[in-house]
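User: Hi! I'm a student and our assignment asks us to look at how structure tokens line up with a sequence. Could you show me two examples?

Assistant: Happy to help. In each example below, the sequence comes first and the structure tokens follow. Example one:
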Amino acid sequence: MLVLALDTATTDLVAGVVDGQRVLAQTCVATRAHNERLMPEIRRLLGEAGVEFADLGAIVVGCGPGPFTGLRVGMATASALGQALGIPVHGVCTHDAVAAELAGDALVVTDARRREVYWARYSGGERVAGPDVCKPADLSSPAVDVISVPGTLAAQLPIDAPSVTYQPPTPAGLVAAADFSAPPAPLVPLYLRRPDAVPPKQAPKSPALP
């Protein structure tokens, strides 16, 4: 089955076409312009893989955790394509997709902005804690074999591991994290906190008005 895999939960725009365990085409681009670049990248990847939208059998999309603005781009795109094509859309935790590419017990950390991080811990390939959000200095974890964390945040973590790297989500990892045997559940974004944008406060009524 041909699967389109998408993730915009991090500063990496991730997309790819996967056939079983074979990745036919993929991209991972560091950008904050997810909205402008996602659909052109999808079209380019389909062309590179030699397939059409109509050939797709399913879509997998990362549901975070991630900042509101970027996360909703991938999820809205996946939902719209799924409805247009009449194919199932499976949402997965972005950190699960990252962990699928790591060996041993792992801690996956991504940038949550506001001087915070999103994290989840894995043992034997299964998530055992998180996802959650906290300040880097407040993050604690039992011993793990590997930590995946952006380089700009690595020095802020009070945790040691034999291996510290940065593994972005990949199309193969997204597909590995999806359960195609189960009916797709409604997509639920993992924001884990209130969005940055808030409704403006109502201005006080002028005493001159009746």
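Example two works the same way, sequence first and then tokens:
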Amino acid sequence: MHVFNWQEVDWVLLDMDGTLLDKHFDDYFWETLVPREYACRQGLELAAARQEVFARYQRQEGTLNWTDIDFWSRELDLDIPALKEGIRHLIEVHPDSEPFLRYVRRLHKRVILVTNAHYKTLELKMNQVGLLGCFDAVLSSFDLGAPKEDRRFWQRLEAKLQFEPGRTMLVDDNREVLQAARNYGVRFVFFKARSSSQAAPETSRRFPVIHYFTELMPPLESAE
């Protein structure tokens, strides 16, 4: 259990993929399904297709293209939205996410979904899991013109929401995003270590680590 004063937090910013939602969907999609479909499309051996596709991924990491499924449709000559739709049954919420969302709502915090996901992916996932009503606002990096790893994202987010970084919490499974938020002045940052139900939890020396949201949930009477 992480001990801090919830009365010092007004804003709770939450990442989507890996933090609220099980990252197994994305890992399977980008690491298995897309290379397999690309191999078929290009007439390549799977190993060669994986090497080429992963090299293309790496070149776009940390940019808006990284999560732009229209970009990847053009880049790989595949219908990425249709492929995602075909496995939408794999989109799942982490079991601890909804209890935490209810918890922070009972504390009367402003709850904001902040994601690098493309709006088509965001719509698909929110329609599948039904969490959209849990947030006061939903902001994508595509709305703000910069990924969360970029300081400009945080500048534009603050301008849009008028949140106070010193009274804000962020939970994310991306260390670079957490570092960007910390550099901007977000006071409470937590690394979500268990991003996928099918992979071992990760760790971090730079940030406080949680495996489950329950680690941020003391009894309500002591948090209020």
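Here is something you could point out in your write-up. The chain has a mean pLDDT of 95.
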